[in-house]
Fold:
Amino acid sequence: MMKLVIDQDPHNQGVPLFVRDSVVMHPGLTFLVGCNGSGKTALLREIEKGCGQLGEFDLYIYHPIEGVNESVGETAAKSFSMFIEDIYAKVKAADRGSEIVALADLSEYGITADSISQLKNRINVSILSDAESREVELYIFVATPDFECLLDEECLDVQTFNRLHFNNYTSYKKYLMNSRKARDTRYKKLKAKEG
Structure:
């Protein structure tokens, strides 16, 4: 576990995007959750910046590759799969005690439920267990609004940094509606500041 200091107002708008000025990171797979516009991508960037400033991590960032003859979802699934295999190779090559941080933003890509299930299984069954057996601290953060990704997984609310678990869609939908209210309150504060 480690703690990173982050900028609460990464867009310099005068109204904090995040409630706290630091985020506690736990090894393993963590999904960043919140409604559209809540700060999933911004938090990934803050984690990237914080890890870069510390300089003691191997940092890997997923950037989807646009395909010519495939759907965006198929292309994103294939490139995310390659990203996961790259992480696995880094874990296998890492020295004991190493720390690896991997960041992926799937917010805008329609990866299908079957692909998500396979990728989660690969991460949870193979990669994380191998990292643990090799005494490598592996932190994987994925930003996504897709419920299939989040089901029964460790999640982090991007607005409050509270840890969450969703075991049914009804609880996730309720959370999203509350996330939207918090986002809209922030938007109102921004408009009032401008006006």
